[in-house]
Amino acid sequence: MPIESLEEQQYTFKADVWAYGIVLWELATRGLIPYADLGFTDILRLLKSGHRLMKPKGCPDNLYHYVMRRCWLEDPKRRPTFFELTEMMEDVVRQLRRGVSGDALLDGHYERVSARSFTVPLTTSTNSSDSTIITNL
């Protein structure tokens, strides 16, 4: 949730834009839970001090910097609109098809995963190395 929703219970289209950036991050991490090891107060403090979720491994640079990070701007007025996001995502896809975005290609190989090939832990890890998912602006 964006700062304005956490502090003042303001839920607007611009708060939805923040949430869209989070959904993109969750997709790029294949379902990790953002800020999983942090409580409400810690999340709010980190967000207010400029920290944001780190770029997921394998996430295209332009998707992270050009789209996600702009969705998480502190000032809601500076976040893109959904119309702008549509255009931004079209740009990202075009660049990925051309192979312009760092370490990822749109048509790249994805690992094949079957339901029998993995398990999901029922508890979250308390290992401090697992909580390095945030970065400062």
TrEMBL record:
GO terms for molecular function: ATP binding; transmembrane receptor protein tyrosine kinase activity. GO terms for cellular component: plasma membrane; receptor complex. GO terms for biological process: cell surface receptor protein tyrosine kinase signaling pathway. Residues 1-93 form the Protein kinase domain. This is Protein kinase domain-containing protein. It comes from Wuchereria bancrofti.
